[in-house]
Write a structure and sequence with these properties.
single chain; about 160 residues; alpha/beta; Rossmann fold; about 35% helix; His_Pase_superF_clade-1; Histidine phosphatase family protein; His_PPase_superfam
Length: about 160
């Protein structure tokens, strides 16, 4: 498990919702959410709001499908929530994801909106592979939101929200 010090007390990891298949000649980066993806992003945002999950900062990939997923979360968070869109998340490594989280020392909670497989590897790095396998035996689904809290013994998966 990874140690992030000093940590935000809560980390949210959100995988973008389902994207459309790329049209001929379209870049992967420019793929938008499918109709099902839009619906799933809205459902997860509503459930997150109902549960009071409101990050202080949302950091999202600049890929269109991540920006659209982050926008669905915008209405579920506090008006003061800051949104940042970071190119390095698209095609980013585990080290990039973890350093973005670790760098938020002035925030109590941070949400990272990213891509698989790195979003799943980030969760495994924080809570451990066994805990990940127990919770998500089929992997990290699209529009899945992991809620991870800091504890004296490390990071603990508190909740997992999905449609």
């Amino acid at each position: 498990m990874t140690s992030i010090s000093p940590p935000p007390f809560r980390i949210y990891l959100l995988r973008h919702a389902e994207a459309q298949q790329a049209a001929p000649g379209q870049r992967d980066f420019d793929r938008s959410l499918s109709d099902n993806g839009y619906a799933a992003a809205e459902i997860v945002a509503d459930e997150a709001a109902d549960k009071g999950y409101k990050p202080d900062l949302v950091i999202s990939s600049t890929a269109l499908r991540c920006r659209q997923t982050a926008e669905a979360m915008r209405r579920a968070v506090m008006p003061s929530t800051e949104f940042r869109f970071v190119d390095a998340i698209y095609n980013g490594t585990l080290d990039i994801y973890l350093s973005l989280i670790a760098g938020q020392t002035d925030q109590d909670s941070v949400m990272l909106v990213g891509h698989n497989p790195i979003i799943e590897l980030t969760l495994a790095s924080l809570i451990g592979r066994d805990a990940l396998a127990d919770t998500l035996p089929r992997g990290f689904p699209t529009a899945g939101l992991a809620v991870i809290d800091s504890s004296p013994s490390g990071w603990v998966l508190t909740d997992f929200v999905t449609e």
